[in-house]
TrEMBL record:
Residues 95-137 are annotated as: Disordered. Transmembrane segments: none annotated. The keyword Metal-binding does not apply. Gene3D superfamilies: Tetratricopeptide repeat domain (1.25.40.10). It comes from Streptomyces purpureus. One of its GO terms (molecular function) is DNA binding. Residues 97-118 have a biased composition (Low complexity). Residues 3-104 form the Bacterial transcriptional activator domain. GO terms for biological process: phosphorelay signal transduction system; regulation of DNA-templated transcription. It comes from the Bacteria. This is Bacterial transcriptional activator domain-containing protein. The keyword Phosphoprotein does not apply. PANTHER family: TRANSCRIPTIONAL REGULATOR REDD, TRANSCRIPTIONAL REGULATOR REDD-RELATED. SMART domains: BTAD.
C-alpha cells in the first residue's frame, strides 16, 4: 500500500536522520513481510508490491534478490533473468560494480527452494495460511 514519506508535511524534514532511519526501517519491514510471503508459497502475490518497492530502491541488492527469487518461485524464469540484467546494468552504470553473487538468478539463494521456501504450488491452489507453513510437507 502506498503511503506518503515520513513527516512529508513538515518543511525541512526531508534529510533529517530520524526520518531517514524511519523510512529505512519501514522498507526493511516491508521487505521482511514480502520475504515471508515468498517462503510461505505466495510468491505470485508479492510480485506487484515487489515491483513497486524495487522501483523505489533500485540499488537495494537484498530487495532486488528477493524480487528475483519471487519471480522464479512464481515460475517466471525469463522475467527473473531480465530483472537480474536490469539490476546488473543499474549497478554497473551508477556504482561501477556488479551485483553480489547471491543476487544472480542461477544461484541457490535466488532459487525458489532457498531459505526454506516450499516448492511451487500447483496453479489454482489456495495460499497457505500463516499458521500452517508445513501443511504441504
Amino acid at each position: 500500500m502506498a503511503r506518503p514519506p515520513v513527516l512529508a508535511d513538515l518543511p525541512g524534514r526531508a534529510g533529517d536522520p530520524l526520518v531517514v532511519r524511519a523510512e529505512r526501517r519501514h522498507t526493511e519491514a516491508r521487505r521482511d513481510r514480502l520475504a515471508a510471503d515468498v517462503v510461505l508459497g505466495r510468491a505470485t502475490h508479492t510480485l506487484v508490491p515487489l515491483a513497486a518497492l524495487t522501483a523505489e530502491h533500485p540499488l537495494d541488492e537484498p530487495l532486488q534478490a528477493l524480487r528475483i527469487r519471487a519471480l522464479r518461485a512464481a515460475g517466471r524464469q525469463a522475467e527473473a533473468l531480465q530483472a537480474y540484467e536490469d539490476v546488473r546494468t543499474a549497478l554497473a552504470d551508477r556504482l561501477s560494480t556488479d551485483p553480489a553473487p547471491s543476487c544472480a538468478p542461477s544461484t541457490p539463494s535466488c532459487s525458489p527452494h532457498s531459505r526454506g521456501a516450499l516448492p511451487p504450488r500447483p496453479p489454482g491452489s489456495p495460499p497457505l495460511s500463516a499458521g500452517t507453513p508445513n501443511s504441504r510437507i
